[in-house]
Design goal:
By secondary structure, the chain is an alpha/beta fold. The chain folds into two domains: about 5-10 and about 90-235, Lysozyme-like; about 20-75, LysM domain (Membrane-bound Lytic Murein Transglycosylase D, Chain A), CATH 3.10.350. The chain is built from nine helices and eight strands. The protein has helices spanning about 10-20, 40-50, 50-60, 80-85, 115-120, 150-155, 165-170, 185-205, 230-235; strands at about 5, 30-35, 70-75, 100-105, 135, 145-150, 170-175, 210-215. It is elongated, with a radius of gyration of 18 Å. It starts with a strand and ends with a helix. The structure holds zinc ion (ZN).
Length: about 240
């Protein structure tokens, strides 16, 4: 059985606007961080993609240059909370130690989780279903900027999106619908991709140099995610 998380990205923007005010300790889904020796408010803010100001305000800190090791900080990360709520991992499994995030294009004009899942099961004979963990729609087959999570995310299963089995074990796969040799990703797709990737980076402590295109993964011979997908521009928007 497959559990599918599906949202429109506009709902994500709305949620971040509505969720005003500092997060409070004990609120389900809120994120906390115990300060390690040597960490600063700056380094912690970078890790979670929030500003030092937001972090200070949420924790009632007047002087952000002084923060004591051992203190537990509340991370006011609305989109983090949002993703946790909308794309939950099954309570029956543990999360994997993912090390890479690999971006793909579908090389088709139309697509959705449903279409790819059908194709991968029936045509490519993958019993675990859709090879990617997430799909981001382009308005043809699924809504523009809509994020869908497949069962490989929910059940924390290895991907089927790379040639190497070892790489699939540690690489999350995100597929953007579209042929980016012919056209560019839509602005809404890129916004959704940035938000999703930042969430995954924060959750699994993945640095931006481990966010790569399919073509950049070792041993691959492909143009995926297409000539019009700029990894450099995308990485500038990451944590
Ligand atoms: Zn690919």
């Amino acid at each position: 059985m497959m559990k599918i998380g599906k949202i429109l990205f506009s709902a994500l923007l709305l949620a971040s606007l509505v969720a005003a005010g500092p997060a409070r300790a004990g609120v389900p889904g809120s994120l906390s961080h115990r300060v390690e020796r040597g960490e600063t408010m700056w380094s912690i803010s970078q890790r979670y993609g929030v500003s030092v100001d937001e972090l200070s305000r949420a924790n009632g800190i007047s002087d952000p240059t002084r923060v004591q090791a051992g203190r537990v900080l509340i991370i006011p990360h609305d989109s983090f909370t949002y993703f946790e709520r909308h794309f939950p991992v099954s309570s029956r499994v543990n999360t994997r130690s993912w090390q890479y995030i690999v971006i793909h294009h579908s090389a088709t004009e139309i697509g959705s989780l449903h279409r790819f899942d059908y194709h991968h099961r029936r045509v490519r004979r993958m019993p675990q279903g859709m090879a990617y963990h997430f799909v981001i729609g382009n308005g043809r087959g699924s809504a523009d900027g809509a994020i869908e999570a497949g069962s490989r995310w929910t059940l924390q299963q290895q991907g089927g999106h790379l040639k190497s089995v070892e790489r699939n074990e540690v690489s999350l796969g995100i597929c953007l619908v579209g042929n980016f040799n012919e056209r560019s990703p839509t602005p809404k797709q890129m916004e959704a991709l940035v938000a999703l990737t930042r969430y995954l980076q924060a959750k699994f402590s993945i640095p931006r140099n481990r966010v790569i295109g399919h073509r950049d993964s070792r041993g691959e011979r492909t143009e995926c995610p297409g000539r019009n997908f700029s990894l450099a521009d995308f990485r500038r928007r990451l944590l």
